[in-house]
Every structure is written in C-alpha cells, then in structure tokens.
Amino acid sequence: MEITWLGHGTFQIVLPGGETLILDPWTTGNPSYPAGFEIQRCDTMLISHGHFDHIQDALPLASKFGSTVVAIYETAAWLGRKGVANCAGMNKGGTQRVGSVDVTMTHAIHSCGIAEDDGSFVYGGEAAGYVLTFPDGRVAYFAGDTTVFSDMALIAELYKPDLAFLPIGDLYTMGPREAALACRLLKAPMVIPMHFGTFPPLVGRPSKLQELAPDTKIWELTPGVPVSW
C-alpha cells in the first residue's frame, strides 16, 4: 500500500485496489500541507478527536467524496448534525469493518472539545487512536494526539502492530522522550513520527526519537511524497 504524509497529523493511505483512507484531515490552513497536492479519493475518513487541526476538512471531503467517517460516538453525532451523511460512530475497544479494513478504536490521552464557529466548545467525547487491520493481515496503529500510557503494552499484546504513527512534537502531545517509551511498549518495528514542526512550539524531531529509541526504525516522511509499505 501507499502512505503519504500530508503534514502535521494528516495521512493518506491507498490500498492496492485504490481504496483510500484519510486520517485526521487538515488541509485548509495547514502550513505543512504539500503545495499542489490534491486528494483524489476518500472512501474512509478516520477522526481521532475534534480539534481543528484534525477535523477541519472532514465536512468538505465527506461532502465531495461521500466518505464514511469514523469517529468516537459524540464526534460522529456532531458531524452528522453538520451534514455528514455517512457517519460510523464507535467507542474504545470496539471494532468495525469499514470498506476492507477492520478498524479498532483505542484509548488516547488528550482533550476533545470541538470549536463552533462562534468560538464556543462542545463536548466531543474523548480523544482516541485506531488500530487498522488491513486485508493482507498487516496491522498499523495510529495514535492520534496522545502522550505515552502504560496500556500501549496491551495494544502490543492484543494487536501486534507492524507500524505505528506517533506524535512527537511536545507541548500538545508527547515529545521524543515519551515517544521513545511508547516505542518500547508497542514493540512495533517501524514508527512514523507526526505532529511535529508545524508550528515553532512543536520542537520534537525524528532524529531525537531515533537517538532515544535505537531499536526501532524511525521512518521520517516528507509531506506529499508517497512511500510504499
């Protein structure tokens, strides 16, 4: 399959048959979004939580492509009220088949208020992560925004991820020190770092994570450049 980092916490995953997943869609106003890149297809959208930098473009993309949007129950209900026709709400520990991918919702430690146009916040449930089990049997863990938590060891035991997407920027999520412990708990052989460098306070860097987690391959991607996995 093909993985393309679209900057910050946003990713595009294209399966061999063309089925396309968009994770935490933030394209409009994302300073790390690759210039000239255009999303051509979106069958499934995964939302980890309701902050603008992870949900900003859910509505226009779902409207354009008729995507199935997966989110925690309360965020899915909010998206439905805003006009998303195909919401697939779920909660932590549950699994559902979306397209050809089995999607399991996991815990994350983060806030999840959703900002309305008037600046007020509504309850968005809780922040979450996802375990994605693909048709070929490989497993990826998308942590969303979180710090390290000891139950990542349970994710390793239950799902045995082959690849993990971990935030490393610090301030709003864990930094490299905490992410290095996450690497050890998850036991995934490869980690793609995310949620760093978008803004000056997000100071964590992949090189530091590699230094602190030498037994894990830290796979640093370039926004807009697809890689094969």
What does this structure look like?
- The chain is an alpha/beta fold and 229 residues long.
- The chain has one domain: Ribonuclease Z/Hydroxyacylglutathione hydrolase-like (Metallo-beta-lactamase, Chain A, 4-Layer Sandwich), CATH 3.60.15.
- It is 21% helix and 28% strand.
- It is built from 6 helices and 16 strands.
- It has helices at 52-55, 58-65, 73-81, 152-159, 176-186, 206-212, and strands at residues 2-5, 11-14, 20-23, 44-46, 68-72, 87-90, 95-98, 101-107, 114-115, 121-122, 128-133, 139-142, 163-167, 190-194, 217-218, 227-228.
- The strands form 3 sheets. It has a 7-stranded mixed beta sheet with strand order 6-5-4-3-2-1-16, with helices on one face.
- The longest helix has 11 residues, at 176-186.
CATH topology: Metallo-beta-lactamase, Chain A
**What portion of residues belong to β-strands?**
25-35%
Task: Please trace the helix and strand order, writing H or E for each element.
Answer: EEEEHHEHEEEEEEEHEHEHEE
Give the overall form.
Answer: globular
* Share of residues in helices: 10-25%
Number of helices: 6
Number of strands: 16
For the CA atoms, what is the radius of gyration? 16 Å
CATH architecture grouping: 4-Layer Sandwich
Structural class designation:
alpha/beta
CATH superfamily: Ribonuclease Z/Hydroxyacylglutathione hydrolase-like
- Count of discrete structural domains: 1
